[in-house]
Structure formats: C-alpha cells, structure tokens
Amino acid sequence: MGILSGKHLLVSGVLTKSSIAFHVAGLAQEQGADVTLTAYPRVSLVERLARLLPRPAAVIPLDVTDPESLAGLAERVGRHTGTLDGVLHSIAYAPPAALGGNFPGTGWPDVAATLHASTYSLHGLVTAVLPLLRSPGGSVVGLDFDASVAWPEYDWMGVAKSGLESCARYLAFYLGAQGIRVNLVAAGPLRTMAASNISRDGDGAGDFAALWHRRAPLGWDETNADPVARACVALFSDWFPATTGEIVHVDGGAHAVG
Amino acid sequence: MIQEVSGVPAAEVTSEKSIVDDLDVDSLSMVEIGIALEDRLGVQIAEDRLREISTINDLVDHIDHSLNGR
Ligand SMILES: NC(=O)c1ccc[n+]([C@@H]2O[C@H](COP(=O)([O-])OP(=O)(O)OC[C@H]3O[C@@H](n4cnc5c(N)ncnc54)[C@H](O)[C@@H]3O)[C@@H](O)[C@H]2O)c1
Questions:
Q1: Which residue of B has its CA nearest to A42?
Q2: Domain span at residue B31?
Q3: How far apart are the C-alpha atoms of A229 and A231, rounded to whole Å?
Q4: Which of A46, A59, A81, A161 gives the lowest tally of CB atoms within 10 Å of its CB?
Q5: CA A189, A195, A198, A201 torsion: positive or negative?
C-alpha cells in the first residue's frame, strides 16, 4: 500500500523521459495512484512515454493556451475517472526572445505568450478540472523556480514564476472553502528540455547547476528529479492536510543561504 | 520507424542524409524516435546524445554500439 493508493491524478507536462512530470507520474504509480497524462504538442510522443511508466496511463491532448482544449478537458478526463484527487501543473513555455539575456528588449507579444503558457495556465488548468476535483481533499501541485530574486538569463520566465507563485496563493485562497489545497514545489535546476532552452548556448541547466553546487548546503544533482518527484507525491498524499498556498523548496537548501 | 514518427517516406531515408536538415525532422521528433527505439529494440539513447546524432549513419552507429555493448 502506497501513500497514494486509491487516488487518481491528472499529470501534465510529460514531454521526455527527463521531464519532471514523467518522474512524478512514475513515482505516483509506484505509490498506488492511477495516473492520466495530458499531452502537448504531440499525443503519439506522450503515448510512447506512457508505455515506459511502471503501469498503464491514459493520455489525453491538452493545450493550456487554447480555451477550447481547456473547455473539453473535464469531459475527456471524466471518461477515465469520476473524480480527481490531484492535478500536477508542470508546464512552462517562453519564446526565445523572452529568455537568454534579452530582458530589456522583449516585446509584449513574447511576454504575453510566456505568461499565458506559464502563469495563467495554472488558473486555466485548475478551473477546467474543478468540477472533477475531490471536495474536500483535492490537491493541486505546480512546479516553480524560486522567483524571489532575479536570475541571469531566466528573464521573463522569472516574471512568469513570480506570477505563478501569486496565482497559486490566490487559488489556495479561493478553493480553500472547498477543501482543495494548492501548493508549489520550487525545484533546483534539472536537466530537461525546458531548461536547455533557457540560455543561448543551450546549457541553462549547466550554468544554474554550477551555482547550486557552490551554494546548496545539501549539495545538488541536476540529473536526479527524484527528490522533486517525492515532494510532489507527498503533497498529493494525505500527509499535508493543513498546508495550502505554500512553496516547498526542493533545492538542496540553496534558497536559504546567501 | 522514422517514417512512422516523422511522416518522411522510408525511401527518402538514406544513410548519409542529415536527419534534422535534409529530412526536416524537428527536435521533438528526434525525441520520439529515441523513445520508439527504446520501446521496440530496447536501445537507450540519452537525450543529450540525441542532440549529437545528425545523420542516419550516426543513428545506426549508435544503435550498433548499444546492441553490441550489452
Ligand atoms: N528543469 C528545471 O530546472 C526546473 C526547475 C524548476 C522548475 N521547473 C518547472 O518544471 C516544469 C516542467 O518543466 P521540465 O523542466 O520538466 O521541462 P519539460 O520541457 O520536460 O516540460 C515542460 C512541459 O510544458 C509543456 N507545455 C508547454 N506549453 C504547453 C501548452 N501550451 N499546453 C500544455 N503543455 C505545455 C510541455 O509539453 C512540456 O511537457 C515547468 O513549469 C518548469 O518551469 C523546471
């Protein structure tokens, strides 16, 4: 019996085997959860990845920037499960012009695309599945990168993460009455597709990792998403029943030291 | 398999062609080809290695390597 047995989770953000969401999905299954994956941009890719998970997982398409796609989500998820116990938001996108040191020159269309996919999408995803979310007891978990300071090259994604942190607090505020928790996990740098797009030389994760190796009191391994996945699974479980609007840092402690 | 993932006709897939430039397969399709290989042949290609693979020859070499290395 795992800590998620009997629970059904909707997991967004699986794109490659290194996606944080892929690790969360696998670990959640090992802990007894039934998992449905959302896929963007290509369902066939995510279906292949689903076959590499410990247990089968249904795959449904979802573009969080497309209102129609969001409007049909609850119905499509509902074909696989009656209620949802948890939703993982593991989604971020910024056009190249919004990242990599171009901050002063980024125009509104690129900023808007960044905020739409990376900030407003938390609101979009959560409200889309709200009719299915267990009340009380539902848990929403999102992936964050510490937005309390400015980072080199992270640029408008940093602004988007500040907004995500605030959006999570407001969702926690408004959904608390229904017994639904909303929390973020602020992860240290991990080698994923999203991370490789941050800097021009394609090594955003490497630059951040060097910083983490110097600062994190516990040390940091940018190739191991397991600690982050564990925190997400814990937040989906019944072991954080009175925690909402929180940001759990899974970063080796780097945020706590100067 | 490249045909299945990317829609490029199998006849056009020849050994010296560059997968990304000549066959216009994008990086996401490369990820999908990598996963399909693992699924069908049990060959694992790390994602950062995938970026180094540019021609069909490279890909075949890599598959050879992993199959013989077991
Ligand atoms: N990798 C890191 O260093 C790191 C650190 C902290 C937080 N995060 C966050 O973790 C989350 C997952 O990123 P990752 O590192 O696993 O990279 P990833 O590239 O594997 O995942 C990003 C995901 O966003 C999805 N996505 C983008 N636009 C979408 C849209 N319009 N609709 C639906 N899905 C869309 C992609 O399909 C992909 O699955 C992101 O929020 C990211 O900011 C990553």
A1: B28
A2: 2-68
A3: 5
A4: A81
A5: positive
pTM attached to this predicted model? 0.93
| Given the residues A120, A161, A170, A174, the one annotated as active site | A161
What class is the A8-251 domain? alpha beta
Q: Is B41 on the interface with A (CB under 8 A)?
A: no
Among protein residues, the one with the nearest Cα to ligand 1's atom 33 is: A63
pLDDT of residue B70: 58
Token pair listed for A120: 């407003």
Domains of chain B: total: 1
What gap in Å lies between CA B30 and CA B19, rounded to an integer?
Answer: 9
Q: Is A19 in the pocket of ligand 1 (CB under 6 A)?
A: yes
Å between A20 CA and nearest CA of chain B: 14
A90 lines ligand 1 (CB under 6 A): yes
Per the annotation, the verdict on A154 as an active-site residue is: yes
Q: Is A161 a catalytic residue?
A: yes
Contact A153, A215 (CB under 8 A): no
Choose among A18, A45, A49: nearest Cβ to B28: A45
Find the residue in B nearest to A40 (Cα). Answer: B28
pLDDT for the residue A226: 98
pLDDT of A204 reads: 73
Distance CA B51, CA A19 (A): 16
**Interface list for B 48-67 with A (CB within 8 A):** 48
Which CATH number belongs to the domain containing residue B43 in this structure? Answer: 1.10.1200.10
Tens digits of residue pLDDT in A107-143: 999 999 999 999 999 999 999 999 999 999 999 999 9
> With 80 as the cut, is the pLDDT of residue A87 above it?
yes
The complex's ipTM?
A: 0.71
Q: What are the residue ranges spanned by the domains of chain A? A: 8-251
Burial class (CB in 10 A: 0-12, 13-18, 19+), A23: buried
- The answer to whether B39 contacts A42, with C-beta atoms less than 8 Å apart, is no
Q: Which of A136, A146, A144 is CA-nearest to residue A253? A: A146
